[in-house]
Amino acid sequence: MENQKTALITGGTSGIGKELAKLFARDNYNLIIVARDQTELDSTKAELETSGVSVQTIAKDLSDMEQAKALCSEVTQRVDVLVNDAGMGVYGLFKDNELERELGIIHLNICATVILTKHFVRQMADRGEGKILNLGSVAGKLPGPWQAVYHATKAFVLSFTTAIREELKDSGITITALLPGATDTDFFNKAGMQDSKIVQDKEALSDPADVAKDGYDALMAGADRMISGFKNKVEVNVSSLIPDSNVAHTMYEQQKPVEQK
């Protein structure tokens, strides 16, 4: 057990984060999983420990900057892999959404990612090795009416990841961005997005296990980014060829409520 590596995963009790945790456990990584709900943490811990690895749980609300900083202080063991998976969104027109809810999204999706990355990358740099996986989204490549703040936070994550990857290229540390499209997780329910056209077509949603496998393989290969899913790759490539205003209109139509004509 002492020779095993350790992965820290935020948002590790559901969706893509949980599927990533399963892949790390399969490959004999000890785990530190972070989420808000201790009951969900305990349940996930019991499930993952059947793989024979050690699982530590830490309950934190990473949209609270002091709790994000406290997490860094509380993790005293070596972290070989950091996975910044925790994230959230809110559905609706920007003028109508609650400011504090949107600021919470910025704090979680952007600020917590910066805080944890800075803390653990410094430790990795001292050792000359380490891996980081940041959960971006194809949303970061597409202006997103009805989710304007969420899409903007994921644009930050992609730009941030790409920039510090270049800074770290000779350090022995690799940093990878995973860009999934719409995925069958609880994200849409928590974001209040069930009425959106893009969510209504369940068959179009990606399987979180498939997305996690794409991201895990890219991370282990030291790749710079992984757009998960052929359809998402096509959408991103096409969007780069047309004006952003046209892309925004297309996203408006895809994400608007089904009852709105």
From TrEMBL:
One of its GO terms (molecular function) is oxidoreductase activity. Keywords: Oxidoreductase. GO terms for cellular component: membrane. The keyword Cell membrane does not apply. It comes from the Bacteria. SUPFAM superfamilies: NAD(P)-binding Rossmann-fold domains. Belongs to the short-chain dehydrogenases/reductases (SDR) family. This is SDR family oxidoreductase. It comes from Mucilaginibacter myungsuensis.
